[in-house]
Every structure is written in structure tokens, then in C-alpha cells.
Amino acid sequence: MFHAEFKSISGKDAYPLSQIVYRGSDGSLLEVCHDRSAWKSRSPDEWKILFGGRRTSFAPADLSGVWSKRELVLPELPVEDIVTLQEGWTPLFNAQKLAKEINIKSLRVKLCGNSHTGSFKDLGMTVLVSQVNHLIKKNISIKAVACASTGDTSAALSAYCAKAGIPSIVFLPAGKISVAQLVQPISNGSIVLALDTDFDGCMSIVQEVTADKNIYLANSMNSLRIEGQKTISYELCQELGWRLPDTLIIPGGNLGNVSALAKGIDDLLSLGLIDKKPRIIVAQAEKANPFYLAYKRNFDKLEPVQAQKTLASAIQIGNPVSYPKAELAIKNYNGIVEQVSEQELSDAAHRADKIGLYCCPHTGTALGALFKLKEKGSISSDESVVVISTAHGLKFSEFKAAYHEQKLDNISAKYANAIHHLPAKASAVMDVLKEVV
Ligand SMILES: *Cc1c(COP(=O)(O)O)cnc(C)c1O
Fold it and tell me: In terms of Cα–Cα distance, which of 341, 284, 364 is closest to 317?
């Protein structure tokens, strides 16, 4: 009884989900459009009971944060075609100490990087690869799935395709991603293409290559991924007792994830599961800030920039594909776009680590925006805030080690914790401990 199809955001075109199509006839982005009126066949309380019940089930689909909401994701996909790595249901870290330090009501950090491949990209990739798996089972010819990536998308694509037994091809900007991110698709058996360009360059080449429909495009322009990523909003709402915080802060690069966050909230409002809109804040690195600049110009239009090298490598993007959806997200949710310097994002990540987090630079970008906006008075003391952490810090060991060694270019690491190098003598150790404990 539940149904979804692709619609172009310009409203002109509609296509069945079984069709291989990424844009409307006028070039506009597509979105998976659900028959929301059918959702009304269940009351808000019935939805809560259904989702609450699945939280105690061990059925493979129920164990996934994404597929436990399957009626709202891909309602017509047969459960046996799902390719899952138990994505979702990630920890919600209570950062009360930090909230107290900066004087806000509460701060939680949603650790989306505590996931199979170490980033939130798993949430979208399970949906995309499941749909591809379904199409292949229906004898639609797909030889491989391809993506351009700043690292995490290719890691996720590679793992889900390997699980499903589907070939994958990843296009990476040579020398611009972390070692951990590079090793992941190599290990999972992808065809790995390192190109002498940046992410935006890889993106335009992969789009040309996937014009051949035998090679399926897995970038976030593919709106199937948004359907998985939007479940971040459902999950947060469910774990906060069917409430959302006043403010959500998310780092943005290609701007798919903020679009997903907003779509999830649209759904919750439409289901009657919440009635109050939270505010969405997008954080960008100063070195790759086209969305921030557009926001400052009242969203007159997107002016692509040449993204500069930033420690937040996964958001080093100058021409964000999902710009139109992200603009709507900011407008609908009373949003703000903030930018932070390399110094600010590095310090913010490591300040948060001091209370037990282990932040990647993108999470540092979001936290840096929080600190900055609180200082400016754009976030007030009575606000509850959730920061979306997008990747696991372990993927960015080079960044974190260099920070503590004071080896990051032009950065004076305020929260560095230097190692004590000592001779192997108890007396030397005791001398130091007298000073520091
Ligand atoms: C992909 C990614 C982002 C950016 O998400 P967009 O949807 O491109 O805005 C942020 N952080 C990490 C770690 C990522 O992998």
C-alpha cells in the first residue's frame, strides 16, 4: 500500500524507481517522492509502536537503523533483496561537559561514523546497493557501480558491493584522501582509479562514464542515497523520546547530507511524529565554502569555487551537486551557514576529544561552528543542540597525530597533548609524574 517514485525537484518529471535515471529532462535533481497520504493509514502512536517493537527484534532488516524504517525508505523493495551491514543505530554521545563549558542547555553528538566503514555514507549506500541488487535480480543489465569520492563514499560503495557480489569502480583524487580511506576500497576489491585532479574533476569524469547505463552512478546526486541518510533524523527523534533538539549542526560538502537531514524532518512532520521545526546549521571549511558564500548573498545563486586544500578533506568540494536541495533545507528550517578556519576546526575537534570523543576534522568543523555561533550570540544559552559527527576519528589518524605533535602547517594546537619521551628509568618517570599528576 505504500509507494514511492522518482520526481524531479522542478516538478516536471516522474519515473518509476526501477528506471536508471539520475536527473530530470531539464537537468534538475531527482528526489524519491513518497505517497505521504498513505502514511496516514497509521496514527503517530501506531508508527511509534511499530518502530519501538523493531528495536527489540533480531531480524536482519530490523537491526539496521535504515531498514527498521523501511516503509518510509523504499516501501516496495522485497526484504530479501536488502544488502545491509547493520548500519545506523549509532551512539548518541552526551557531551554535557562541553555544553556546560560553552553555556548551552545540552549538547549531544550523533556518532554516524561508528559504522561498518566508519562514516555516515553507509546509511545511503545500503539503500543504493540494495536497489541495484534488486534491479540485477530482475535481470536489468548493470555491470558495475561507480562513484567519485573524497574517500568515504568509495569505502562504503566498495564494502556494500563486495557484500552483494556486485563489481564496483571508484574514482579518487590522487593524494587527496587519507590512507585509511584509500585502503578500504582496495581491500574490498574495487577497481580503484586515482586521477590527477580534485574531487570536482573526478565527479565530472564519472558522470561521463556513467552516461553508459551499464555502469550505475552511486554519487549523492543519486537520490536513493538520500533516502538512507534521512533516517538520521528519524533515529535521533526516536532516541530522544520522539523529540528533536532545537538546533542541528552538520558539516556540508556536496550538501547531500543536509538535504537528507531536512527530508527526514519533513517526513517526521508529515507523519505527525513531531510538530515543532528544529533549526539546521551547516558548517563549511573556509577553504571550500561555496555554500557559505551563497548564503551570505541571500542565495542569489551558487558560484562554484576552486576548493582549496583543507584538513576536512571530505568536504573539500567547490561545486556542490545538491546545492538546490540544501538551499531549501536552510530556508525551510530557519537555517544558518557558518564557516570555520583550519585552526578553528582543528582545535574544536581536539577540545571535544578531551571529554572522550574522537573527532574527525569534519566533526571539528561542525563543533567549531557551534563554538563560534555561541560566541556571536546566534546560538543562545537555552538551546539544545545535536552535532552530526560524520566519520570516525580513526580514519584521520594522520590529522590527529600531527595535531598533537604540533606538526600541522600554520596551526598552533591549543589542545595538543605532547608525549613525554623518557629514558627507561623509574626515577625519570617519577620525576615527571611529580610534575604532571
Ligand atoms: C561525505 C562527507 C561529508 C559531507 O557530506 P555531503 O553530503 O557531501 O555534504 C562530511 N563529512 C564526512 C566525513 C563525509 O564523508
Answer: 284
